[in-house]
Amino acid sequence: MSKIKINSFLAIITSKLILKTSKLLFKGGSNFPGKIALFFDKHIISTVSKGYTTILVTGTNGKTTTTSMICNILKESGKEVITNNTGANMNTGIVSSLISNYSFFSQNTDKFAVIEVDEAYLQLITEDLKPTLITVTNLFRDQLDRYGEVYTTYSKILEGILKTPNTKLVLNGDESLLGKLDIPNPIVYYGFNKSLREDNKVSVNADSKFCKVCKSPYNYDFVTYNHLGSYFCSECGYKRPTLKYHVDEILELTPEGSTVIFNDDTYFINQAGEYNIYNGLCAYAVGKEFNVDNSAIRTSLQNQSTSFGRQETISINGKELKIILVKNPAGLDQALNTILLDKKPINLSVILNDNYADGTDVSWIWDVNFEKLNTLTVDNIIISGTRLYDMAIRLKIAGFNRDKFVLCENDEELLSGLKDTTDNTTYILATYTAMLHLRKLLFSEGYIEKLW
């Protein structure tokens, strides 16, 4: 048994008891045990993370899926891996996850910890944990009441990185804010060398449209989505950095997944949508930095299962529900593009909450191009959540037939609406707390076996 301070010992023992009780009584409980541990020892994370090869995954969109992909790639290559797979990515949830895997009687050498970290909490985590690698997925406008504009998120992440100058960084090279960083860390970049479309203009609602060096508008060889792509500034010469890992071609994009070429090798990503190609590429890049061979990565990506609420498929009375977490304009717009891949008649459900974890400002829904779904056959439109009427107005303005709206003010009406659909597939777009509540509802009704 390794020697630890008495306050650390009390933190671990108390949290383990709370974790066990929470799992027995409430089928979960990710944050409270960590909160108690931090009460006893505010630096407990340095104790419970000791010995791991640690990878931190942060950024606005794609953290949970990318974390899961990295974990599976490492496991496929024979590594032992722990992670915070419930998506509890603030310091309390991360501490809880590490404590749940902590043993007083064994060392963590030769083990990996792949940890999803909320952007605002990276600087707290790197205060006591010096990871081997940090990867950043992207930076989009998200929860204005909590993060402010995208540059605030960028500053918070950079503060966290500055506390661990020896950590290797694997960064999205198509994200213009992540180039030309004045830091000592070794950096490698990933991104697209080929886009699905010839578009080289960003939309009026795109985020980082102006050069981080001279503030002139960016030009693009191509745009993948929002402000991501092969950017350059014609005024000062700032441009996308050289990519070590890259998408060379997108061979096929379907509702079931994507066939792509990474660094001259072909892979199938068992998650639909262009944004999941980014997630897969990020996971591929991290895997290669740890010398995982291509065959292990290929097997892992083609067998990747969905994380809860991230294109998760649930059967209800023989009908298929596809739950997609949405939380900002860029992510929701990409979710709509994924739905557009499905050409058969569908149902659409949108559940909009305005709780703290969702962002209390829901004005962002007006920056999303719902209008493009009018090309599909949508038979039922089921709307719910604390801001259901805001969403109903937005969809009415987008041109959807009001007669197809099913407005659900409570759980019973929502469940009934989902059961009574005419088509077999319903796409559910839900904000964070709405997604969690829906899963709890489906769990209580016996439609899913595990809450977390």
From TrEMBL:
Belongs to the MurCDEF family. MurT subfamily. InterPro entries: Folylpolyglutamate_synth_CS (IPR018109), Lipid_II_synth_MurT (IPR043703), Mur-like_cat_sf (IPR036565), Mur_ligase_cen (IPR013221), MurT_C (IPR013564). The keyword ATP-binding applies. The lipid II isoglutaminyl synthase complex catalyzes the formation of alpha-D-isoglutamine in the cell wall lipid II stem peptide. The MurT subunit catalyzes the ATP-dependent amidation of D-glutamate residue of lipid II, converting it to an isoglutamine residue. Residues 325-435 form the Lipid II isoglutaminyl synthase (glutamine-hydrolyzing) subunit MurT C-terminal domain. The active site is at D361. Keywords: ATP-binding, Cell shape, Cell wall biogenesis/degradation, Ligase, Metal-binding, Nucleotide-binding, Peptidoglycan synthesis, Zinc. PROSITE patterns: FOLYLPOLYGLU_SYNT_1 (PS01011). Zn(2+) binds at C211, C214, C233, C236. Forms a heterodimer with GatD. Gene3D superfamilies: Mur-like, catalytic domain. It catalyses: beta-D-GlcNAc-(1->4)-Mur2Ac(oyl-L-Ala-gamma-D-Glu-L-Lys-D-Ala-D-Ala)-di-trans,octa-cis-undecaprenyl diphosphate + ATP = beta-D-GlcNAc-(1->4)-Mur2Ac(oyl-L-Ala-gamma-D-O-P-Glu-L-Lys-D-Ala-D-Ala)-di-trans,octa-cis-undecaprenyl diphosphate + ADP; beta-D-GlcNAc-(1->4)-Mur2Ac(oyl-L-Ala-gamma-D-Glu-L-Lys-D-Ala-D-Ala)-di-trans,octa-cis-undecaprenyl diphosphate + L-glutamine + ATP + H2O = beta-D-GlcNAc-(1->4)-Mur2Ac(oyl-L-Ala-D-isoglutaminyl-L-Lys-D-Ala-D-Ala)-di-trans,octa-cis-undecaprenyl diphosphate + L-glutamate + ADP + phosphate + H(+); beta-D-GlcNAc-(1->4)-Mur2Ac(oyl-L-Ala-gamma-D-O-P-Glu-L-Lys-D-Ala-D-Ala)-di-trans,octa-cis-undecaprenyl diphosphate + NH4(+) = beta-D-GlcNAc-(1->4)-Mur2Ac(oyl-L-Ala-D-isoglutaminyl-L-Lys-D-Ala-D-Ala)-di-trans,octa-cis-undecaprenyl diphosphate + phosphate + H(+). Residues 57-218 form the Mur ligase central domain. This is Lipid II isoglutaminyl synthase (glutamine-hydrolyzing) subunit MurT. Its EC number is 6.3.5.13. Pathway: Cell wall biogenesis; peptidoglycan biosynthesis. SUPFAM superfamilies: MurD-like peptide ligases, catalytic domain (SSF53623).
